[in-house]
Structure prediction request, 380 residues.
Amino acid sequence: MIMPIQQKKSALSEVLSTRTTEGVLYEKLEDKALRCFACGHRCKILSGLEGICKVRYNEDGILRVPRGYVGALQVDPIEKKPFFHAYPGALALSFGMLGCDYHCGYCQNWVTSQALRDPVAGALPEDVEPADLVRAAKRLGATVITSTYNEPLITSEWAVEIFREAKKADLVCSYVSNGNATPEALEFIAPWVDLYKVDLKGFTQKAYRDLGGQLEPVLETIRGLKQRGIWLEIVTLIVPGFNDSDEELTNIAEFLCGVDPDIPWHITAFHQDYKMTRNANTDAGTLMRAYQIGRRAGLRYIYPGNIPGGFGELEGTHCPKCQALVVGRTGFRVTSYHLIDGRCPDCSTLIPGVWGSAGAGVNRSAVPRPVHIQTGAGSR
Prediction:
């Protein structure tokens, strides 16, 4: 039997309502209202209502937030996140919940991120506990655990609960996020998050309004992450007709350079997906134009991507002083590693990053793998 759209939404909301706990990132207001601090929307939520994300809601003056499940779970190469200056070749156990504070028309993870908005999205929760995920990571040889697939900021209480367990097992913890954070959220996660990838989706307020957000909170998040010493990498998905003008790309590159010219900037190709099917796919020439813009702005580490084999050695990391290839890559696979204590082997220039064990992941399989686990001591 096919349920009407509203019934489908209500059914999923009901399922998720049994997988919640009281949140941390909020304050109580008068008349049982509350203010949520998880993301830049800073929703004022009246009793009985939900925030923009649709997964944080007010139950009689108490903020209920997601806990105890995953909507997606697999092992990825860390380069897929993407992190290029952190633990090259490492495996990352990647988990996500459901929901998002944006509604991007080109979202590649819409099955999880838009599950509460779009009845076609079919992701369902799978019950897990933090210890289950940590055991799975250790069994599969993952040294990194990543909150991704939906927006991790709106499920930060759950991520921190997992990361507390992960740290006991010496795992590296990371966020893959739209960056629409608040200072309160950053302070809450900062003791537990080692690596943070921000999607800087454009550089105009109009572009961000189209996606359901605002530009300034993302810029503040980027500054705040650098100030807190969390390793940061930036991705801009370049979409023809949306954010690919020379002016906008220049503004992005100059902003990043002003924060720190050593921030890695991943410029990736858009492919038609979800609801954005009229914009053309991004070609290699557009990414090369963005690459040159970034170089002129002063950025030292720029990585064109999503067109495998289209950029030769530009997928690798080069010494900014002597141009030696210090980490070679093809797609998500690390093909060579030449750093010595984080320095160029030819001129000893320090290459910023969190490098881990030298060459540990060279030529490791770059194919993502789904993960199936059982809860409790019987995890497999």
About this structure: Residues 69-312+362-370 form a domain with the TIM Barrel fold (CATH 3.20.20.70). The chain has two domains: 5-66, 69-312+362-370.
